[in-house]
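User: Fold this; tokens only.

Assistant: Input:
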Amino acid sequence: MPESSHVHRPAPLSRYVMLDSLTILRAPAALLVFFYHITHDTVWARWLPGAATGYVGVALFFVLSGFVLTWSYKPADGAKKFYLRRFARVYPLHLFFFALALAILVLTQKAPSAGATISNLILLQAWVPNWDYIFSVNAVSWSLSCEAFFYACTPLMLYWLSHRSERARYAVLTGWFLLTASVASAVSLTSNYADVVVYANPLLRSGEFALGMLLGLLALKVRDGELAMPPVRTWQLWAVTVCALAGLYGVSKVHLTHLTQTISGFLLDPVWVLVIGIFALHDMQHADARHRAGDSVSGTRMRRLLVYLGEVSFAFYLVHELVIFGAVAAPWGASAVGGVRGLILMGASLALGVFLAIAAHHLVERPARIMILKASTRTL
């Protein structure tokens, strides 16, 4: 018999796929930022390899956010429910650490201006081209100002993309990343001040979110059986992890003398796309196999622990610099210069940060999210 001209389409995957590895990735992303602040804000351990560019952990968050929101977005729920869930997920914890940081600043007579304080409270600080605004109150919350902008655009962008051809979707998202990266990189070369301002600008960082959306659209095609899924082995996860660490170390070696902070960050974005893509494919492959076999076990104890650390990483990200500043302000912290004492202080700051993150996750983040979502069900 002649061969059929019909093109074989892979079977669609179960729609119950949980991408736990992407939750796990949030923990090392937060840890990268922690190590950056250890080397930037202290003299405890400036020898840490790759830590000089640890701030790129934020870029990993941005790409990851674009992927996850595209993957999980449900058009039938509408934009209102999407915005409410995002608000419940992010704002309560931001408000808690905003209040804590502001109280500390007031008590130490370092309170920011009223304008900077209000802009931080409503997550508009990163739009103001002024360091005193961008890094006001809890400094790391500048990235939430970017995320808030991404969230605002997501339903509109996904709706617009859904009415375009596949080729147009990919071209627009790729083109937007290239455009924003090019503009930001060019401006960053003009001065150190401009470098930091464009690095934190939500519009110019939205290209990384667009990269995540592009990856998310491709993952949906795999899930729905429209794109063949290549097999991903465990050794490939290790290989891509080594590749990411090598890229981070390589960029850190030339960053301080040859690259701006903005350019260094954009250079590593393709690495994050590779990492997220490979880990997501691996999860889809194995989670779908478990679901089809009727196995509800989510993995080993170690994997569940890593997922849990990923879940508390948001709280850790928001509290870690407050912990570092507190340690530096103490007499024994300010006088520590490298060596064993520096390592002990770094380890203690990490441990305290994780402890406070776990407490905030269980006492603030989860209860507030549940309360807001329950209250909303009575009004929506």
